[in-house]
Amino acid sequence: MYKSLIKPLLFLRNPEKAHHTTFNLINLTFNLPIVDSIVKATFELNDPKLEREVFGLKFKNPVGLAAGLDKDAKLIDELAMLGFGFIEIGTLTPKPQEGNPLPRLFRLPQDHALINRMGFNNGGVLKAVERLKKRKSDVIVGGNIGKNKVTPNEHAVDDYLFCLEALHSYVDYFVVNVSSPNTPNLRDLQEKEPLKQLLSAVKSANDQKSNPKPILLKIAPDLTNGQLDDIVEIVRETGIAGVIATNTTIDRSVLTTSKEQVEAIGAGGVSGKVLAKRSTDVIRYLHQKSNGEFPIVGVGGIFSAEDAIEKLEAGASLVQVYSGMIYEGPGLIKKIKKGLLEYFSR
Fold this sequence. Notes:
Main location: membrane
Enzyme class: oxidoreductase
Membrane topology: Peripheral membrane protein
Protein name: Dihydroorotate dehydrogenase (quinone)
GO molecular function: dihydroorotate dehydrogenase (quinone) activity
Shape: globular
CATH topology: TIM Barrel
Helix content: 40-55%
Order of helices and strands: HHHEEEHEEEHEHEHEHEHEHEHEHH
């Protein structure tokens, strides 16, 4: 029903307006009597074979929702009904910010891709905390944290530490995001020394808590092999729990959409099917270079169970979806889990 009826209607609308419409409908309907039971019965698929223990957390299944869809933790309980093993909120920043000017989200149907230059638009970490305090589901929640646009890189650590402190009691793991292409100079923090200093500070603050949470690093797919070697070294030296590979790409050469159309859209990170190969290559490289020393969460171009299996075979322990949900619909999660069950049963 999604691909034949709902998706065509949503795709008639501006992508960001369609997103808000979808969220409003989910918020209005999923918690109605009987509807919640129907949703759960439709999308849930639980099996001990799908369970995974990764960086000390027990996941009901290895399929998660990537950061960006529920930036402000507005629909955690409702999205959990779709059968995710974990949900990542954010990217959250200390202060609310509007993000980049509209329009800033674009579909490329020919490539089953999206281009976004959202710019960490969010209501601020403290608003998200208030919502997290009220959540009812036991789904694992990750907090993806970043810096405000106005914060200079030399003070970026203060923003990450603020978010860590605010969220610590309400999320199960943290993701340090320095890889979005849509905040000016943010990716400069991926350079070896600034990144090592940032992660060391976040890890140190986390370790002082009575219940430290796993700290992960989200990286760009556009890093060179030399930079990926640095990532492996930094993970080892700082002792963080793992890596999320990957964020969106600034590489437009992977697109088949006309050059004129892409240039008219302008700046932004590309996600979707076109990212699948590169993200898998990054996962495989990190896994081999590190000898599997740390877990990797694979994200990028997952539109089917086969895509998820490819990431796992490359060395990922868990996977996340985003663009695949937009193009394939919420039934994608159950399809992936069915395929994984068959794969794990071989």
